[in-house]
Amino acid sequence: MFKELDPILHSQLRLAVMSLLLSVKEAEFTFIREKTNATAGNLSVQVQKLKEAGYIDVVKEFKDNYPNTKCHITPVGIKAFEEYVKALQEYLKVGQPKL
Amino acid sequence: MVLAQGGARKEPLHNLHFANNALQIKIRPGFAGLILQLLCCMEKNEKGFSPEESLLLIESMINKAKDRFGEDGHLYILWGWLVLIGSVTEFVLFHYFQYEKHYLVWSVSWVLLAYQIYYLVAKYRRQKVRTYTAHIIGYVWLTFVILAFLIGFLNGRLSGDSRYFYHIFPLLLALYGMPVFLSGVIIRFRPLVIGGICCWVLSVIATFLPYDYQMLMLSVAMVVAWLIPGYLLRAKFKQEKTK
Q1: Which residues of chain B make contact with A34, given a CB cutoff of 8 A?
Q2: Pairwise CA distance, residues B220 & B88, whole Å
Q3: Cβ atoms within 10 A of the Cβ of A18, count?
Q4: Does B51 contact A at CB distance below 8 Å?
Q5: Do B54 and A88 touch (CB under 8 A)?
Q6: How many CB pairs under 8 A join A and B?
Q7: Which of B51, B65, B131 sits opposite A91 (nearest CB)?
């Protein structure tokens, strides 16, 4: 029986954001936007969904008098990501041709 | 769902035929394109996203987040030159002029320290992303600064005489090796690793030399551990930037 893929993570943009944040300590919203090539609006919605799921923390602050948003992955997010990758591996194992 | 283009008008209309042909809608091309794009995106995002595509996406994002070579060697070069000039000047003052307060030459390092704090704060504010590598290296250098002050203090307290500073160069050389070696290991940059090891070798050599020549070991350490790796780091940084 296959594990169900986490619907929060099984979306291209949300998965891209999580993969990025997993590799760095923290990243600004503009950095994530540059790397994912997403629009600010779409990214904002997806970041909010990840935040609501408790997978990332979002800190809003001011930098040189301009609002600045910083994100970092939470332990819950790391666990969810690990589970997601495990589930993917199971799918791929079954998909491979038997030698 | 099939998309066909009408050709009768100047601005052609799109016909959206549904599978059973029960419904046929005529809409302008821009709008049809937008709807189709949205439908495709939704499908791609939520349904047609295979496990293979997921893994490829994860891999590509991790590669994008990988540390581009973020170290330009600026501080290595700056401190390298300052300590090199300082140690040679101190040697000349002590060896040729027997000037008693030869150590005063190091007062200038407070100015550079103030500049370094300003530089690091500005760099921190400019950065859009903080990597684990930079975070760990920051703490390695902080440990080095704390230990450098501690060694100066402990050496003075434990030696107990007025010539306590006679042991300081071999101790500092041994200490210099630590952050250079660790930084090299963390950012996988061999010249720094070699530089760190050279500092340790020079610290042992320094114990066999008279005090004034120990100062010159510090000059050699600055060239092999800070200046050469610093310029190589700068070259690599520029190379990565142009890619």
Answers
A1: 128
A2: 10
A3: 26
A4: yes
A5: yes
A6: 72
A7: B51
Q: Is residue A78 within 8 angstroms of chain B, CB to CB?
A: no
Which domains, ranges and CATH numbers included, belong to chain A? 12-94 (1.10.10.10)
Q: Nearest CA to B165 among B89, B104, B220?
A: B104
B133 touches chain A (CB under 8 A): no
In DSSP terms, A67 is beta-bridged to A62
Which ranges of B96-227 would DSSP assign to H, the alpha helix?
108-126, 132-159, 168-186, 190-206, 211-221
Residue of A nearest to B66 (CA): A23
The structural domains of chain B, with segments of one domain joined by +, span 2-65, 74-241
Closest of B11, B22, B118 to residue B74, by C-alpha: B118
The one-character DSSP state at B88 is: H
Q: Which residues of A touch B132 (CB under 8 A)?
A: 24-25
Global pTM exceeds 0.80: no
| A13/B58 touch (CB, cutoff 8 Å), yes or no | no
pLDDT tens digit at each of 243 positions of chain B: 333 333 333 333 333 333 333 333 344 444 444 444 443 444 444 545 788 888 888 888 888 777 555 678 899 999 999 999 999 999 999 888 888 888 888 888 889 889 989 998 888 888 888 888 888 999 999 999 999 989 888 888 887 766 667 788 899 999 999 999 999 999 889 999 999 999 999 999 999 999 889 989 999 999 999 999 999 999 988 887 776
Residues ≥6 apart with Cβ < 8 Å to A14: A8, A46, A49, A50
Q: What values do phi and psi take at A37, rounded to 5?
A: 60, 30
In the chain, the amino acid numbered B221 is: A
Chain B nearest CA to A28, separation (Å): 5
